[in-house]
Amino acid sequence: MAAPSVRKFVTIVDEVFHENGPPAATPHRRGAILAVIENPFAGRYVDEIAPFMTDLEPLGLAMAERLIEALGGAPERIEAYGKGAIVGAAGEVEHAALWHAPGGYAMREALGGAKAIVPSAKKVGAPGTRIDIPIAHKDASYVRSHFDAMEVGINDAPRANELVVVLAMTTGARIHNRAGGLAASAVEGKDGLR
Predict the structure, then answer these.
(1) Tens digit of pLDDT for each residue in 131-158?
(2) Fewest Cβ atoms closer than 10 Å to its Cβ: which of 37, 61, 66, 188?
């Protein structure tokens, strides 16, 4: 197959100063980058779709690098991540699953070898469909302070023959987190869990 045909990119950055508590000296930043691409399988059933994952790898890495730049340009400041995809109505949810490996490995590589599994969400939808991208700590899935989600969507995507692929990252824990659990400062980073 060929490189994915990109119609557009959308980048979103939130700066959260407080959630009804005292304002933080440094805001919690979370961001997402979305790419609207042509779905090469739209409108028909194709049995062998896995090779498209390889085609998506350069896009994943480019998106991860662009998102790190949007969040300040310092990979070491990124603490959590997530990914997802929305498939247009002429596709199937399995087409979104093709984003799992290229999206996840791209962020791990761009962040210098993050250990934890990258949480993910996928769905089929029409233009304007929104999706909650789950977010978790990049090195230890049990770090409860970093469990979060970021809702994203694009008003004119996905069209029936498109996919919207998404990467999300944050610079830290939820603002005012106080739900306990494994502290980020106690992460061993060996197995992606603790």
Answers:
(1) 999 999 999 888 999 999 999 999 999 9
(2) 188
